[in-house]
Design brief:
mainly beta
């Protein structure tokens, strides 16, 4: 018996460590609220130091866990953390499933890290309220175009993008857009934003977007947020930010007009603990054009870094360098019959020795510091600069003058500009976000201070060769038959040209021009400095189904004209800018909203600096009231907004159509825009994406010293626009991986922009159809886009028949994209 017990004792002693010291394993998957895997989520066991990271399928496994009770915590940037108590026994493999809910308020008040979503829909905005807010809960109309739609349509500029947004259209070839009938232009200190900050851009070339996460159109005069703003709205380009998971893609495209594009997008973590993230976007384009002599050589380099040392501190550095080379295209000119079809749409008036070289730089540093559960401090600094180097042959905005005071309407009077100038912007935003409760209400308070500075640097200057020679050795752009003796005349009594006319019938009009004998005059752009200081407060209150937004901003504007000279003049202005809005949750799918806001904008530096413009001018002042509804359907995959609005503006500037002074501007009394918009964006099915938009906009001049323009449609402000884009992918069967895209755009008739003309030129309505075919094989996507497939001749905008801007004829782009 003793021997038997001894044997049992020895067996127990031998197996005991295996039985009682056996460890367990916790495994599982992490998905979002839609059931999609969440990659690179952190999975940790509290107080043990054990943990892991989910893979690309959202799976994780933690081994060698001693038996016992634990708290398992799942966390990922962009989602609310989840904590779950678990028990593990020796030898057990515990399998768990987690569904994380997206976090908006608790994550970012400054956009530090990137957007994970990969569809056409976008659910939150940072710029519209300066805090992360669901778009459905913002009392304003905010439209967007995501990078996924940009890639599906093979787009490359903001001008390409706006066709997808109701109520937005091109004004010209330039960085020049109409929103609800009001212009948003480059080379201004308002209306064009990068990451919610006012930036300086080119007026001439459309803004490039290979580094852009999404383009947001924030409609209405958002002065309470951004200080100076245009009445129709602002265009905000949100750059791509780093992601914790590794994503890499390379895209190459080749297409019509000798187009070649190469894009690269790399992102991921630089450290194992995911505290230092990076993203690098590269873009290069080389293309000619359907327009004579026009071309583009564009380079974009855009690195971005996010440093996340703790849950309380987030830091981002973001830089975008753009180098653009081409020629400045002033548009198509036609014969004096004013028939847009009388000359080919390919006709440009450039000379082959013209050029336009531009360099733009934006650098942004963003800090978010959480000071407690309810308080955070946010600071953003942005430096932006723009340099212009230009030589152009351009019209004098009229036909060739004859000695009897009539015009040769087969020739266009020309002039030459040689110009160099550079602007620098400094933009510094600081604000506190504070969450608090008061009685039965939940509140988010925003208090901030903004500083903005724009400077035209020394040396800005222009050589101008005007159209006709004068007896005193100078030149002028117009011929006055009453003073014919002041001009150099030829044997027939016609004024002799300083810059030769452009002959619309000549096949060699674009030839190399000898510029050595031109009579030039020098125009100096004296240094200019504008400073603005803004102090603002905003409160978002939630009372059951009702959310109320109240905002107030005090802005101080200081303009230093002839800066750093003996003639320096200081002009000061100030404005108190309110904003009121409310959102009511009618059902879980439907929100109703309404808003009232005011806008204020001092006239631009270019108008102040131009002595021929006729200033000084009063500021632009505006007011908007808007109401509508926002909805989400198909498990929040499809969103829709319908909005009704009325905007009033005073102080708009237009060219006076003065034959003796083409630069002179006139200021109108009042303009009004009112209408309705519908936007639908998202997915009907997981493999069926859709964008639909319609806008009716009645934009007209309602008050002016010139009574003849009262009631006239505002320039390049169509009454009706329609946009549609649909993409469908086949997911099963022998055709799996194949996809199709179909698009449609309609723009109604528009007036040209010379409001003082007796009979404004009309640019006709147009309808365009686009199509695309996609085929995905593993990590490779093949794509062919065909635009304007019925080859419709059309004009996207224009000033008059000497400066008309035709749209591209039928064109094709083939793209290969590799993701790894």
């Amino acid at each position: 018996m003793n021997k038997r017990y001894s044997i049992i004792y020895l067996i127990v002693m031998a197996l005991g460590p295996l039985v009682y010291g056996q460890t367990g394993t916790i495994a599982g998957t992490v998905a979002d609220s839609q059931g999609k895997p969440v990659a690179f989520a952190a999975v940790g066991i509290q107080s043990t130091g054990k943990g892991g990271i989910t893979n690309e399928e959202g799976q994780f496994q933690i081994e060698d866990i001693a038996p016992g009770d634990y708290a398992l915590v799942i966390s990922s940037i962009g989602y609310e953390s989840e904590k779950r108590n678990v028990s593990i026994a020796g030898g057990q493999t515990l399998t768990l499933t987690f569904n994380l809910h997206e976090s908006i308020y608790s994550l970012q008040t400054v956009e530090i890290t990137g957007r994970r979503a990969t569809g056409y829909d976008n659910r939150e905005t940072f710029s519209a309220t300066k805090t992360a807010t669901p778009i459905k809960e913002v009392p304003a109309s905010i439209n967007f175009v995501t990078k996924e739609l940009i890639l599906d349509q093979a787009l490359f500029t903001v001008n390409d993008v706006v066709k997808n947004v109701a109520g937005v259209n091109q004004f010209s070839f330039y960085n020049d857009i109409t929103i609800r009938g009001f212009r948003v232009q480059g080379q201004r200190n308002y209306g064009t934003l990068v990451n919610g900050m006012r930036s300086i851009t080119s007026f001439w070339k459309p803004q490039l977007i290979p580094h852009i996460e999404r383009v947001e159109i924030i409609k209405g005069p958002s002065s309470a947020l951004f200080g100076n703003a245009t009445p129709g709205g602002a265009i905000n380009r949100v750059t791509k930010k780093p992601l914790a998971e590794a994503r890499k893609s390379i895209t190459a495209s080749i297409g019509s007009f000798g187009t070649l594009r190469t894009l690269a997008d790399f992102t991921g973590s630089m450290t194992e603990d995911k505290k230092l993230l990076y993203r690098l976007n590269l873009g290069y384009e080389e293309s000619d054009s359907f327009r004579d002599l026009q071309f583009n050589r564009n380079l974009v380099i855009a690195p971005s870094f996010a440093f996340l040392p703790s849950e309380n501190t987030n830091l981002n550095f973001d830089m975008v360098y753009q180098d653009s080379k081409g020629r400045l295209d002033r548009g198509q000119a036609v014969f004096g019959s004013r028939d847009l079809f009388s000359t080919p749409t390919s006709l440009s008036l450039s000379a082959i020795n013209d050029y336009l070289d531009e360099v733009t730089l934006n650098a942004t540093v963003s800090l978010r510091q959480r000071l407690g559960d309810r308080l955070s401090f946010n600071s953003v600094y942005q430096f932006s600069s723009y340099r212009e180097d230009l030589l152009e042959h351009r019209t004098s905005n009229r036909f060739a003058a004859l000695g009897d005071g009539t015009f040769d309407e087969e020739k266009v009077a020309m002039r030459v500009f040689i110009r160099e100038r550079q602007w620098n912007n400094n933009n510094f935003n600081n604000y506190l976000n504070f969450d608090y409760t008061l009685g039965r209400t939940s509140n988010t308070l925003l208090v901030g201070y903004d500083y903005f500075e724009q400077e035209l640097l020394p040396g800005g200057s222009q050589l101008e060769a005007r159209s006709y020679l004068l007896q005193n050795g100078t030149a002028t752009n117009t011929f006055n038959v009453d003073n014919a003796s002041d001009y150099v005349l030829d044997a027939d009594g016609n004024p002799v040209t300083n810059v030769a006319h452009f002959d619309l019938t000549s096949p060699v009009g674009n030839a190399l021009r000898d510029m050595t004998n031109y009579a030039y005059r020098t125009r100096n752009f004296n240094q200019f400095l504008q400073r603005t200081h803004g102090v603002y407060i905003q409160n978002q209150t939630e009372i059951g189904p009702l959310k109320v937004l109240l905002g107030l901003r005090q802005e101080y504007f200081t303009d230093l004209v002839d800066y750093n000279t003996a003639d320096e003049e200081e002009v000061e202005q100030d404005a108190l800018l309110p904003r009121v809005g409310a959102v009511f949750t009618l059902t879980p799918q439907i929100n109703l909203y309404g808003t009232w806001m005011q806008g204020y904008q001092p006239q631009g530096a270019g108008d102040i600096l131009n002595p021929d413009a006729g200033g000084p001018f009063d500021p632009l002042e505006s007011e908007m009231i808007e109401f509508g509804a926002k909805t989400e359907w198909f498990n929040r995959q499809l969103s829709a907004t319908v909005s009704f609005y009325r905007i009033l503006e005073t102080g708009g500037l237009y060219n006076a159509n003065d034959p003796d002074n083409p630069e002179r501007l006139v200021q109108l009394g009042e303009e009004e825009s009112q209408g309705v918009e519908l936007n639908v964006t998202g997915r009907i099915l997981e493999n069926w994406s859709l964008i639909v938009g319609y806008a009716y906009n009645d934009a007209e001049i309602t008050d002016s010293d010139d009574e003849s323009v009262i009631g006239r449609q505002k320039p390049n402000a169509p009454e009706h626009t329609v946009n549609l884009w649909s993409k469908y992918r086949i997911e099963n069967g022998s055709l799996s991986g194949l996809g199709f895209g179909l698009g449609y755009n309609y723009v109604s008739d528009r007036f040209g922009s010379i409001v003082s003309a007796d009979e404004p030129d009309v640019f006709p309505s147009y309808s365009l159809w686009d199509a695309a075919v996609y085929y995905t094989i593993d990590k490779v996507q093949l794509q062919i886009n065909a635009n304007n497939i019925f080859d419709k001749t059309h004009w996207v905008g224009g000033y008059d028949v000497l400066r008309a801007f035709p749209g591209a004829p039928r064109n094709v782009m083939a793209t290969v994209a590799y993701t790894f």
